[in-house]
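User: Could you write out the 3D structure of this protein bound to FE2/S2 (inorganic) cluster? I've included everything you need below.
Assistant: Certainly. Input first, then the structure.
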Amino acid sequence: MGTITFTQPDGTSAAISIRPGNTVMEAAVAREVPGIDAQCYGAGVCGTCHVMVAEDVAPLLDPPSQWESDILACLELAGPGSRLACQIRFAEAIDGACFTVPERQDAIA
Ligand code: FES
């Protein structure tokens, strides 16, 4: 079991537990983290699990697939460090990582 933290747009943070192999989205939804809508629950098509990853965490993750990059390109609030939480599978390397929730989620599908 590991721990990840979500920071909300108002600056508040909350740490939650996550099982190895689960995605960041799955952990967020299970703990009802505000702002992670995950409308397609991991199908990778809605864009509503958008999070921003800290600069020091990004290199620890598998790079986004072309599909994920294409979805992110459709999101108005996406920028450097943006990822889909449903495409980030937890591993020990990112234990303690922090993910920032955007001001809003814009569904694209
Ligand atoms: Fe829909 Fe991640 S949950 S894209």
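Helices lie at 24-30, 66-73.
User: Perfect, thank you.
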